Amino acid sequence: MTMKLSISRDQLLKPLQQVSGVVEKRQTLPVLANVLLVVDAGKLALTGTDLEVELIARADLAGEFGDGEITVPARKLLDICKSLPASAEIELKLDAQKLSLKSGKSRFTLTTLPANEFPNLEEGVGAFSFTINQKALKKLIDKTAFAMAQQDVRYYLNGMLFEVTEGRLRTVATDGHRLAMCDAPARTESNDRMQVIVPRKGVHELARLLTDDDGEVTITLGTNHVRATVGNVTFTSKLIDGKFPDYERVLPKGGDKVVLANREELRQSLSRASILSNEKYRGIRLQLTPDLLRIQANNPDQEEAEDDVTVEYNGGSLEIGFNVQYLLDVLGVLETATAKVILGDANSSALMQDADNGSALYVVMPMRL
Questions:
Q1: Are 307 and 293 contacting, i.e. CB atoms less than 8 angstroms apart?
Q2: Rounded to 5 degrees, what are φ and ψ at 292?
Q3: For the chain, what is the domain count?
Q4: 338 and 234 within one domain
């Protein structure tokens, strides 16, 4: 019996798009540029992996099919599917180690590699499961992902901390200059505290699968892997083996200068001033006096920018420098109309959050200017 199936283009295209996101174009192993197709028990399962992240998407089959498994080039199969008309029916059949694809008047033959060459992320036993609303998880990732490091030698910073405690999931990301942290309720079986670090690519792929609906996602944390099932897709990612910094120690304590500002006005002022900041260091100077925040920037060409923002503040004056991009990143993910910034002195980090004390907290280290 040979592997064969017929399926509508749309039924094949969606799972194919979901899994081909992880398939890298440049591969050390040729089989990693392929997607694994498995027909079994009336379902087609498609798998893509880059050895760090694995995605499996499933589609139900109707009509005739023959069980079997094979791998084919992911990008080519995806491009063929995209190029066919929306209502097309596709027939796939394995013939002498080539996969033939027929649709209407079109015929394609693709090279294959045997399924047994396709790596699978070894199944670890999941130590710990919790359930969270899909929209809430998407929000946690969206509000913290920008602060992850990129290719830092401290490899444990190139990812996101997932910390589960009783009834709650917290995500934390930091690149050493800034930190983002957000909490959401989760249904946990146990009340132990569990921490894992999900690598950057895994975080982005998981976010891509999540939608804004109220469906639940069950996440299982093992010693080396995290697994989540979202709809018909199973996502697995290796974890970063390392110890995440003690982020509680980074949270500035005792800042006595509380500034309330219109978030959008502050964002626009910083954007304008940043045009003349040093392109490499992106430093700006903030001068705080009662009810006024003055933003100043200059660059090696002796150009200067100055912008004033009216704020709610009645403490002592302060002058402090920051990387303007870090402040803009935070203002871009805050939600309410008013942003709250808590400052100490010129050498202390700023603590930023929504004025009504939302679920997210941000720390930005100062810069010496």
A1: no
A2: -140, 135
A3: 3
A4: no
